[in-house]
Amino acid sequence: MEQYEIIQAILGSLPIFFIFIVFVIVKNFKWSYRYPIVVIFGWVVIFFSTIVLQEYSFYYAPTKKIAEEVANSDGASVAFSYLFGWGYALVLMLVMDITHKTYLYLSKKYLSSKKSYNK
């Protein structure tokens, strides 16, 4: 992979990374506070990372042809992230929350069975 493609992949995965960090910070909050915080922060991160990715793809394109293709794109990714970035953040939050709750349940079940076995 070229450096251009690697940086594009990193910029594309930044929203997931930042939403995970926010999730870790607010995971012990009450759900009525946790979800709005993640949705609002996630929407902002997703929207601006989409803009940064598109700007990077245009200004640092390895060839003039790629830069022209990016410039002539319809901008649907930016419009989608503006309108539905909150939904994407909510889905990521739900996946992280379900994963966390499953981990807690399984670790609690595993630890409780180990205690009863050791008695």
Assign the structural class, choosing from mainly alpha, mainly beta, alpha/beta, alpha+beta, or little secondary structure: mainly alpha
Specify the number of helices: 4
Number of domains: 1
- The multimeric state of the shown protein is single chain
Q: pLDDT below 50 for ≥5 consecutive residues: which ranges?
A: none
Largest sheet: none
- What sort of overall outline do the alpha carbons produce when their principal axes are compared? elongated
Beta content comes to under 5%
Number of strands: 0
Rounded radius of gyration (Å)? 20 Å
Instruction: Give the proportion of residues in helices.
Output: over 70%
Order of helices and strands: HHHH
How far apart the termini lie comes to 56 Å
Residue-averaged pLDDT: 86
Q: Care to describe what's here?
A:
With 119 residues, the chain is mainly α. It has one domain. Helices cover 87% and strands 0% of the residues. α1 packs across α4 (76-118) and α2 packs across α4. The longest helix has 43 residues, at 76-118. The protein is elongated, with a radius of gyration of 20 Å.
Task: Furnish the topology, listing elements before pairings.
Elements: H1 3-26, H2 31-59, H3 64-71, H4 76-118
Helix pairs in contact: 1-2, 1-4, 2-3, 2-4
Q: Which key terms come to mind for this protein?
A:
119 residues; mainly alpha
What's the short version?
The protein is mainly alpha-helical and 119 residues long. It contains 4 helices and no strands. It has one domain (3-118).
